[in-house]
TrEMBL record:
InterPro entries: BCCT_transptr. It comes from Halocatena marina. It is a multi-pass membrane protein. One of its GO terms (cellular component) is plasma membrane. Keywords: Cell membrane, Membrane, Transmembrane, Transmembrane helix, Transport. The chain crosses the membrane at residues 18-36, 56-76, 96-117, 156-174, 236-257, 269-289, 324-342, 354-378, 410-437, 449-466, 478-498. This is BCCT family transporter. Its main location: membrane. It is found in: Cell membrane. It comes from the Archaea.
Length: 530
């Protein structure tokens, strides 16, 4: 019994204990391979990613488009008024806290890392001719693709379907089991296929690839900034910084969702605003504003064209390596971000969730990417940053941009705080949901969450030993392929459930119209008496 208490498993069934140990063993084994044979792990992951994108890049592009249509049908139909948790549910968090948690958890340090790396990479290797947007400069086209991938429609395609499905089925419909398999309710009868739900939970919870790769990105970027900007012993200091982050994380674990994750998210938002404000002051301001507006015109006018761009017949596989990669990346993250967003959105309608997960972040990420993209693509910056990335990889690019920027050391300090904040909030939320899903409890105990946090942090630190930055991103892409079909399945299940609750919406509308009519008649009667 002491062992189960120590692991936070004292009130779990044997199937849940097995799920915990199998998942732990799988992640630990992958981490151990990374420690003792990083070259083998790098080669394996990179090869798997190349195979997935070459043969299934088109599938992710198509699936993203289909999901976007389905999401809009849900949100802008009468079902968009459905409230997570039932018609009488009250919001648990205020607007700023809610937005902070959703934003910092859902997008992570990739805004900084890829905000520099993708525009530079596309300028160096633009789409094959003929250009998808004739007449647009390569810089504007590069930034427009960045908007497609990390602003819109990317924001609406992947997280929202899972958030809607989890919120509708687990909270509104009131399914007892707080598990990923619960989203199969309304589709498959567990009694007819025994063990199916347990198998789904095993496959889902054994794939925390999104948070692992984000920790990897963050670790290598932080190491590059500390080494190149501050001339410090990067690896050793990065381990020390991660140790400090671990202490903060354990404190957050003990404080829980309201005081821990919420406050870390709010602090991160403050650092984001401060860093972007300083960048406007010290960066190539005029060029950032002009390029941002020009790229916005390309993005908005050619959104459909760029979203479905596939370079048919081209040997470069350019679109699959960019759009296909991004959609697979989003898909790998969707299960954790979507379920977490559903958890913190109780008491909100589907349309409100759409606003805080899509509309508001679209505006925020558009501003960030306009500033960051304009910064590194500006004359005097683009050349040195491109050379640094070609010589030493993506983390070196952001470090070089900081080195050649006035007050770059101050900006670098803010960036380190932003990355640290993203690590804490992403790790907090991912661990919260992994533990919740494994235990089947929406408020998992801190002991179990601490074990998950330690394991995922270990896997993230292993990435410092990997030979290629691309090996880190490969894990998410590879694991997203089998998960992609599950997204369509759970959306179908959501529709089956939401159709039942549509009658509640109709009843509410009917009652509301009756009350309005009654009040109007009362007012008229009062007027006649006067």
């Amino acid at each position: 019994m002491r062992t189960w208490f120590f692991l936070g498993l004292e009130e779990t069934s044997w199937s849940e204990k097995i799920l915990f140990f199998v998942t732990m063993a799988a992640i630990l084994a992958l981490g151990v391979i990374g420690v003792f044979s990083p070259s083998l792990l790098s080669a394996t992951l990179t090869g798997a990613k190349a195979w997935v994108l070459t043969y299934f890049g088109w599938w992710f592009i198509l699936l993203g488009f289909v999901l976007l249509i389905i999401v809009f049908v849900f949100i802008f139909s009468r079902y968009g008024r459905l409230r997570i948790g039932g018609p009488n549910a009250e919001p648990e968090f205020g607007l700023f806290s809610w937005l902070s948690m959703v934003f910092t958890v859902g997008f992570g340090a990739s805004i900084l890392i890829w905000g520099v790396a993708e525009p530079i990479s596309i300028v160096q290797s633009p789409p094959p001719k003929p250009s998808p947007v004739p007449g647009a400069s390569v810089e504007s086209l590069a930034l427009a693709f960045m908007f497609i991938h990390e602003v819109f429609p990317g924001l609406a395609m992947w997280y929202l379907p899972v958030a809607m499905a989890f919120g509708i089925i687990v909270y509104t419909h009131g399914v007892d089991e707080y598990k990923i398999s619960s989203m199969l309710t309304g589709i498959v009868d567990e009694d007819r296929i025994p063990g199916l739900y347990w198998l789904v939970d095993l496959r889902r919870s054994s794939r925390p690839s999104g948070i692992s790769t984000t920790l990897g990105f963050s670790a290598q970027t932080m190491a590059a900034i500390l080494s190149r900007v501050f001339h410090l012993e990067a690896t050793l200091l990065t381990y020390a910084v991660f140790a400090l982050i671990g202490v903060v994380f354990l404190g957050d674990v003990w404080l829980g969702l309201r005081q821990g994750i919420r406050n870390a998210a709010r602090a991160t938002m403050v650092f984001i605003v401060a860093s972007m404000a300083l960048l406007v002051v010290v960066g190539p301001t005029l060029y950032m504003f002009e390029l941002g507006l020009d790229a916005t015109g390309v993005w908005l006018s050619e959104m459909l064209r760029l979203s479905l761009y596939t370079t048919p017949g081209s040997e470069s596989n350019w679109a699959a390596n960019w759009t296909g990669f991004w959609w697979a990346w989003w898909a790998a993250w969707s299960i954790f971000v979507g379920s977490f967003v559903a958890r913190v959105s109780k008491g909100r309608t589907l349309r409100e969730m759409f606003a805080v997960l899509v509309v508001a972040p679209t505006f925020l990420t558009w501003i960030q990417h306009s500033l960051i993209g304009g910064w590194v693509l500006a004359p005097g910056y683009q050349g040195p940053v491109s050379e640094a990335m070609a010589a030493a990889g993506k983390p070196a690019a952001i470090a070089k941009a900081l080195q050649i920027t006035p007050l770059g050391t101050v900006l670098a300090v803010l960036f380190v705080f932003v990355i640290a904040g993203y690590i804490v909030t992403s790790l907090d939320s991912a661990v919260f949901m992994i533990s919740a899903i494994t235990l089947g409890n929406e408020n998992p105990n801190p002991r179990n969450r601490a074990w998950w946090g330690a394991l995922l942090a270990f896997f993230g630190m292993v990435s410092l030993e990997l030979e290629e930055f691309s090996a880190i991103e490969s894990l998410s892409v590879t694991m997203a392929l089998p998960f992609s079909l599950f997204l369509l399945v759970i959306l179908y299940g959501s529709y089956a459930i939401i159709s039942e609750h549509g009658r509640d919406i109709d009843a509410y509308d009917s009652e509301h119209r009756t009350l309005i009519t009654r009040d109007s008649n009362s007012d008229s009667a009062a007027t006649d008496d006067d």
